[in-house]
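User: Working on a comparison across species. This one is p-hydroxylaminobenzoate lyase from Melanomma pulvis-pyrius CBS 109.77. Can you predict its structure so I can line it up against the others?
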Amino acid sequence: MEPSPTKNVDVPSVEVDFQRYPTSQKLLKRCQDFFSEVENLTPGKDLEAYLNENYGPGNPIYEDLCALTIEGLKEGWVANIELDGPKYRRSKVAVPKEETSFLSITTVYMDSQEEYSGQYHKHPYGEINCVVQIDKTAELKGMQGWQGAGWTSPGPGTHHYPQVRNGALIALFFLPAGRISYTAKPGDAQPIAV
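Assistant: Here's the predicted structure for p-hydroxylaminobenzoate lyase from Melanomma pulvis-pyrius CBS 109.77:
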């Protein structure tokens, strides 16, 4: 399912079936717990550093987000829509709404030993990525470089290829208002605050 190049919302727009998958309800609850802790913070390099220092591996919220996301992958509702075969998949957990502090919740599965790039996109309001490692060597590239277990947080207006290397991972990501744009091009200027 390719997004329309003019569409500026996170796709797919259909939520997981919360009644069918009780684990998804647990994940939603832990996301809500996380959102209540960071609701007044702005995506960007300062938030990324803060999250890696305070909410990284060993933090109960981070560990629960990872465990529930991996369980959802096993149950078949996490990252179950192929974008480039089985190595690059995505699915929506929740659309932006009051109970998610108006953040969308999406999962992207990427698997490659070599550097692999997904769909180029822009974050109009920024993005928060919880890096859920399937393989302990897997890394996701953020605006500040490669990240294993932990977080990346591209700031408002940034754009990039999502990239993975050294194995499989899931990016459990949160977009303010669900905003994402597929109109940015590699080589376009980045905002001052990356």
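For your comparison, note: Residues 1-9 have pLDDT under 50 and may be disordered.

User: Helpful, thanks.
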